[in-house]
# Entry
Amino acid sequence: MSKFKFSVGPWNVHTGADSYGPETRQPIDLETKFAKFAELGFSAIQFHDDDAVPDMNNMTEEEIKEYARGVKKLLDKYGLAAEFVAPRLWMDPHTKDGGFMSTRKEDREFALWRAYRSIDIAKELGTDLIVLWLAREGTLCAESKSPVWATKQLVDAINKMLEYDPKIRVCIEPKPNEPIDRSICGTMGHVMAISAATIDPKRVGGNLESAHAILAGLDPANEIGFALAFDKLFTVHLNDQNGIRYDQDKSFGVENLRQAFNQVKVLAENNYGSKGEYVGLDVKAMRTTSDEDSYEHLKNSLAIFRALEDKVARYDYDYANKLIADRKFEQLEMYTMNLLMGIQ
# Structure
């Protein structure tokens, strides 16, 4: 039995379309996904604002809240919680050159409108967590905006969100590239600096995604540990990534099992989840996956995480600490590999 609670987003079960090809599977409605997620053992749902309220740009504030209340009833029906709401600021014409960092005032106002509505939706769904994936917050042309100005715009936007609701928490999900070429807030270190500059740093933290750390040439477990050291890891998105290329969102642990093991290990060692945090998945099925296998990547990710959780539970810390004290790192490395290979 896992000591962790797991979350998943509706986008994790998708039609297979990507930047290079069309849909390969049929869409699945939200309630069907909720029912299957609950059956698989997930406890909470991750939402973009328009996952919860699809046509929100054409709705009044009260209509948005009313629609969200209907989604809350659907969550309750399947015993699910809402983990967070994230304003989707990268799919709208207003945000083609960034939302909070757009050089156009009307676009920045639109981004804040979506952020405020995300807070409204979150309150209706029963969560206080707002995740900011800063997809287009950077530059397409290096000289198009000052990084100093852009950074201050982000801090200002987060401050306005914190002022809009004194109870919400803002969680930044850093990514070093794609779809923009120069990110303003690309790593967990950047997140910590932004947090410290806000009016209420205790309410601003980070969401570490495994693939995003790899894309920055960093180790996911170290990034997780860095955030944990400052009590700033509000959630995680676990997946895997084959090197520094486009964001692949592969099933957790399928590319680098030792790297995945150390992510589970650092979470377990530091009692992640003891404050109600979830282990979130952000994984995509391969384009070749059939309709009937639409949930296999989620099953696989959960199975790998739980298997690695068992490996961590059986990790001989006394033996490992003795090897560390004697600086027998070759032996420590082989002990870890034998454990992962089932020899130990």
